Amino acid sequence: MDLTGDHVMVLLLAGGRGERFWPRSTRLLPKQFLPMPDEKSLLRHTFERVAGLVDPASVFVITGQEFKELVRRDLPEVPDSNLILEPVGRNTAPALGLAALLLAPRDPEAVLVALPADHHVVGDARFRATIAAAVAAAAADRLVTVGVRPTRAETGYGYIRTGPLIGERSGLPVHAVREFVEKPDVETARRYCESGLYLWNCGILVAKLAILREEIAAHLPEVDHLLEQMAAGNPSREGLRGQMAARVAACFPAMPAISVDHGVLERSERVAVVPADFPWTDMGDWAALSRVLPLDERGNGVRGDALLRDCDGLVVDAFSGRLVVALGTKDLVIVDSDRAVLVCPKDRVQEVRAVAEPAAAGGEALERSRLPEGRTIQQPWGREIWWAVAGAYAARLIQVYARRTQGAQRFRRRHETILVQRGEGRLLIGDNWCELRPGSVHALPPGVDYRIEARSDLTLIGVGTPEVAES
Fold first, then answer.
1. What are the percentages of helix, strand and coil residues in the chain, rounded to 5?
2. What is the mean pLDDT of each run of 10 residues along the chain (471 residues)?
């Protein structure tokens, strides 16, 4: 399936904080950038699913300004000019409005395929066929959603009640949408599943750019008013630069925080749905990991090192590298990270969001107390967090992204010792290569060039001595 010549643009929605994946997902590393069991991020998987549909030049990403380097790490094929950086997060309706404003000058006739970057899909060919059907249906000036046939009474998803059949595209039916229902209780969800009239709302939206702007104007006039202020000049074909960037920075924070589902789709009479022809999982919480990880004979899904005895239905993520041991437990989520340990029943994972914000705030306070004078430096290859330890001594946390290479570095008059906390790669000191593995320690002498290459995401701790005077 190839839509390269069909005026199609793909927008990957990579904003959001992913609080329900706390403590792995943090303010600086939301869930869309976390590695899945195969070490690729959810964002990378989403990009690869559309790679067979359109050229990378037609793939755009909307995300927060602070995540630009993470997007570049995961999607080196996507040009920098295709990154739309939000000054602040304001949910999907303002995000899609901003994207439509900026992309229309490139191709006013284009159909936009907006895809959340935190989904797990099985069967790329069937996914592409479903998207092609939605694109064809959108040509009739409709806002087209994609719905997934429910397989269980899920209370964490929204539901779409299908209406009459209005056509067929690429061999798949297209239905009118009768109503949207947001996260029903378990009994209602069970009735929906048994009726055969409802689909899970998986958050995919396909529409002409012009129709999307029209429907936002009709149903969210406050959003449209701010978009018009941003477009006071002519939106630049080069994206957020110059005066356009200044207008977006001034206007976008005033946007209401509202989803396109609530703000537009639930109110519009132009909405249609294509039933998905592929298995789908919203990676919205820790319980979803049990539908992605391989399970043992007792239904336990494990990532990392774990020793389980007489346990059933556990989800274990031992990211810290420590051994997680569980005995005689059932239906729990256990997450062991560097900053916190989470233990909760699987049926309460939706509540993790409620503890994530105060926990995150407490974690920042703890970090400030431990890392006085700390400052974070974002780099194309990763980031460094520097802080003073005692007197003239200094320490830093070094994170090098997988498959990235740190540029050549050199200390003039100070020594540094680095400890590998996590990940693998290699270190070039002068003309000599050293393997980097968890627990290995390496000395960086003054006056010698060094360079780090990461095979997987690397985390290192460096402690440097005071600078010595030159003789």
1. 30, 35, 35
2. 76 86 81 82 93 91 90 90 93 96 93 95 90 94 95 90 92 93 91 94 96 97 95 61 81 95 94 91 88 93 94 91 92 87 91 72 46 60 74 79 86 86 92 93 91 92 68 36
Nearest CA to 173 among 311, 270, 273, 240? 273
The pLDDT of residue 392: 60
Q: Provide φ and ψ at 330, rounded to 5°.
A: -150, 135
Residue linked to tokens 């990880």: 293
The pLDDT assigned to 284 comes to: 84
Distance (Å, whole) CA 60 – CA 96: 12
Q: What pTM does this model have? A: 0.80
Whole-angstrom Cα distance, residue 353 to residue 31? 13
**CA atoms within 13 Å, Cβ hemisphere of 74:** 25
SS3 sequence of 114-179 = EEECCEEECCHHHHHHHHHHHHHHHCCCCEEEEEECCCCCCCCCCEEEEEEEEEEECCEEEEEEEE
What span, in angstroms and rounded, lies between the C-alpha atoms of 459 and 234? 44
What values do phi and psi take at 302, rounded to 5?
Answer: -130, 135
Residues in CB range of 370: below 8 A, 6 or more apart: none
Query: Given CA atoms 462, 465, 470, 471 in this order, what sign does their dihedral have?
Result: negative
Contact 23, 73 (CB under 8 A): no
Which pLDDT score, from 0 to 100, does residue 148 have? 94
What number of residues does the chain have?
471
What is the Cα–Cα distance from 159 to 196, expressed in whole angstroms? 12
* Inter-residue long-range contacts of 65-71, CB under 8 Å, 24+ positions, other chains counted: 66/28, 66/378, 67/14, 67/30, 67/33, 69/378, 69/379, 69/380, 69/382, 69/383, 70/29, 70/33, 70/401, 71/14, 71/43
Backbone angles phi, psi at 136, to 5 degrees: -65, -40
